[in-house]
Amino acid sequence: MDRVEELSRRLVEKNERVSKMGVLSVVQSKHKFLPVLTKYFYAYIRRRLEALCGTDYVISTRETIEKEIYCGMIIYTNNTYYLLSVRTDYTAVILRLDLAELPEYTIYPGQIIKVLGTNIIGEEVVADSLVYDREFNEQAEQPLPGKFLISIIDMKRLNILNTEETSNVHESERLLSIINECISDVLIIFGDITVQDRDMCKSIAIHKRIRIVCIPYTDGLESSMTYPTEYINRVTSPLPVYNEDNDGIRGLCDISKCWFIELQNPCMISLNGVLIGITTVDILMGISRKEISRNREDRMYDILVHSVYQGTFLPFIPQDIPVDYSGFNAFLWPYRPDLYIFPTCLSARIESICDTYVIPVCTANSLIEVNCSMQGLIEIAQN
C-alpha cells in the first residue's frame, strides 16, 4: 500500500472532526512524507472546494433520489472511490462514490471534482455526470503587444548531461557558459544553485540586461527542502513583495523592474502583462501515477487538462515530497496563468488548455518565444 492509499484509508476509517488544536490525533503519520493531517491540510482542501463551488458550498448527506451537486476530493482505498469534502468548520465528510453509470471519465486521487448524482442511502453518491464549469480569476491587465524569449535551464538534467558528455567540465562552469551565451529576455533556472553561482548569475544578468529567475528544487541542499520551497541563503534581500487578496492567496511578482531574482517554489510572475506560473514539481508524473480513465482516447491530454483545471500548484497528494500545508496559500493560483512551466520526466507536448499554455520542460535547456498581439492574444513557439 503506497502513501496515497494509506492516507485515503485512514481518512475513511477515522472520519472525525478536527480538534481544537487542529490535529486529528488518530491519523498521526509514521511515514516520512505522509502529511500529518492538521487543520491546514483540511483548510487547503476547503479552499480548493470553494474555488470550484463557491464559498458557501456545503455537501449534503441527506438521503435523496433527486439529483444534486456533490463536490469533494477523490480518495481511493480498498478498491473503492470516495469523495472527501470539508465544511467551513473543517468537518470532514466522506461519501462513497459510484462511477459505474458514467460512460466516460478521467479521475485520480487528490483531484477536486464536481459530481451531479443521487444519494439514495445517504452514504453513497451515484454519479450521473461530472460537471466542468470552473471559472478562473482573470487579471485586468492585458499583455503588452510585442514578443520576448524565455530560456529554461533544468539543472538536474544539465548535471546528467555533464556527467555523460563532459565529465571534465564543472556544472557551475557549464551553467555560466550557457548564461553567457543566452540571447533570451528571460532566463528561468530550476536548480540547487550555490550562493556563489547565484551571485555570479546576478552580475551577468545586470551586465547583459537579461532577467534571470532562480527557482529552488524541493530536494536541493541549498533549499528549505519542503514545499513551498525557498533558498536557505539568498543573494537578493529581502524577499520580493507579493500582493495578497483578502483571503490570503499569494499574488503576483512583477519581474519587469529587476534583473536578478530568487523566488519561492512555486510562484507566479508577471512580465509585460503575461502571467507565468512556475514550479519544479513534476505535475504530470504526480497526476499520472494514479489517474484512471474510461473510454478516453488521449491520456496525456487528459492529464494536462487536470494540471490546469485544478487551479493549484499541488493538484495531487505527493508520495515523495515533504509538504508544509501551513503555507497552502502559495499553492493556490491567484489568477489563471498565460503560461504554466514545470519540468517533467514524461514525454509531453505543449498544449493550450483553458487559454493557458502548459509547457512541460523535458530537456536540460529549452527556448520559448512568446508573441502578444495588439488584441492581447498570446501565441508561443518552441525553438
Write a structural description.
The protein starts with a helix and ends with a strand. Helix content is 21%, strand content 29%. The protein contains seven helices and 19 strands. It has a six-stranded mixed sheet. A six-stranded mixed sheet has the order 10-12-13-15-17-16, with helices on one face.
Identify the CATH architecture of the largest domain.
Answer: 4-Layer Sandwich
H/I helix tally: 7
How many whole angstroms does the radius of gyration measure?
A: 22 Å
**Counted beta strands:** 19
Compute the average pLDDT.
85
Shape category:
elongated
Q: What structural category do the secondary elements indicate?
A: alpha/beta
Question: How are the strands of the largest sheet arranged?
Answer: 11-9-8-7-18-19
- Sheet-strand content, in percent, reads 25-35%
Low-confidence stretches: 16-35
Largest sheet: 6 strands, mixed
What is the CATH class designation of the largest domain?
A: Alpha Beta
- Provide the CATH topology of the largest domain: Purple Acid Phosphatase, chain A, domain 2
| Count of individual domains | 2
Oligomeric description of these chains? single chain
Distance between the termini: 42 Å
Helix proportion range: 10-25%
Characteristics:
6-stranded mixed sheet; 383 residues; 7 helices; OB fold (Dihydrolipoamide Acetyltransferase, E2P); 2 domains; 19 strands; alpha/beta
